[in-house]
């Protein structure tokens, strides 16, 4: 079994975990393929030996990797997705962060988790992505997002206006600090803090959620994901900021941005007992009330 392992930063209290993690991989005869920068940290901080294979591009996932393991928070998981892309390699998230909706296990259960992977005691949950196109192709081949695209103001306190079109038909002009367009996975990310809806994975929809809308009667909208969405931001500034998950680029005033559903999904490893709404209840403390005891 070839396992791609990715994390972004090793904290002092995590050193012992990573030592045990890679020791256990060796004991079950799994071949770890480690992200290049992370491998350098492991050698310096954990004392991991030389000789491991590495990856540093999504092209390394074309063949030969069976599972990708992301160790960290949701941001780490999103970066891991940028490596996996259309390869079809399933991703398991091991949470070391605080909230984290994408990871399905934690560092304390990792030995049990790896044993369940050995027994194939899990299911795949498919998560859709959005693909972004602009005239100047500003994101290059990194034009995919699992969570959302955000159009927001860059260097001013003034509002911006984002014109939105659905399948070429005018939808609305959002007077706000910005606008989010995202997937069901992204509904529990930035959009959630902006009052957007929680959307169950597997729903074939996109959402549009304004960021601090000036018009109080403007509300988040859910639309079918097979219809392209076109955005155009205008305002006093010459530039705006366009953020695709964690990747940000400046765009010129009036730039046209078109969003499509990607033609492939990401396979996320989930254990049967970790139902989406069970996770929501636990993470958001739903039902925590003395009246329910």
Task: Tell me about this structure.
- By secondary structure, this protein is of the alpha+beta class.
- It has two domains: 2-127 and 265-292, Probable inorganic polyphosphate/atp-NAD kinase, domain 1 (Rossmann fold, 3-Layer(aba) Sandwich), CATH 3.40.50.10330; 130-261, Tumour Suppressor Smad4 (Sandwich), CATH 2.60.200.30.
- It contains six helices and 20 strands.
- A six-stranded parallel beta sheet has the order 3-2-1-4-5-6, sandwiched between helices. Strands 9-8-19-16-11-12 form a six-stranded antiparallel beta sheet, with no helix packed on it. Strands 15-14-13-10-17-18 form a six-stranded antiparallel beta sheet, with no helix packed on it.
- The radius of gyration is 20 Å and the shape is globular.
- One of its GO terms (biological process) is NAD+ metabolic process.
Could you list some keywords that capture this structure?
single chain, 293 residues, alpha+beta, Tumour Suppressor Smad4, 2 domains, six-stranded parallel beta sheet, six-stranded antiparallel beta sheet, globular
Q: What topology does this entry show?
A:
Blueprint: E1 2-6, H1 15-27, E2 31-35, H2 36-46, E3 53-55, E4 67-72, H3 74-84, E5 91-95, E6 105-106, H4 110-118, E7 123-127, E8 130-134, E9 144-145, E10 148-152, E11 160-166, E12 169-176, E13 178-182, H5 190-193, E14 205-211, E15 221-224, E16 229-234, E17 239-244, E18 247-252, E19 256-261, E20 266-270, H6 276-284
Parallel strand pairs: 1-2, 1-4, 2-3, 4-5, 5-6
Antiparallel strand pairs: 7-20, 8-9, 8-19, 10-13, 10-17, 11-12, 11-16, 13-14, 14-15, 16-19, 17-18
